[in-house]
Amino acid sequence: MIFKNFSPETLAGQFQLSTEAAHFLSGYLVTLPEARILQIPSVSADYFCADQENADLCAALVLKQQKQASCSMKYWYETGDENGPEPMPCVGHLQIVTNWAGEPVAITQITTVSECRFQDVSPAFAAAEGEGDQSLEWWRKAHWQFFSRECDALGIEMTEEVMLVLEHFKTVWPATSH
Length: 178
Hints:
This protein is α+β, with helices and mostly antiparallel strands.
């Protein structure tokens, strides 16, 4: 088991969580049977997107269970930034979804992780992301802009061949449930 105990103070220190996020996680963990707790490999807290408007919108979509997927460039898991590569997402991981201000809104649990090229993202995945009109056309335009900005900042070229890591998740703890 990865959890030393469920006290917010311990969780905050163990997973580098804010006090508020640690209390939120503790409230969820105490509702689970031990068998489910044993299947949780890791925990993090973060918001989606890179600006306040979209971070707050995505948090609201997760809370409504409309957003049940996300993706990122594989680059972040192979090369990363000045701190090195990010850990590859894994099935069972819990994310405390926050708004831009860092306030916990929901907890998600990853159900599948896969990889594909930007050009191969499916209409079903675009719909699961839950943003815009949920069409592949909308997804491609919005994500091309997002990934192009990331690539520009990294000094690499955005192409249709860029590899993505796709995550499907389920909302397991909405803020309204406690």
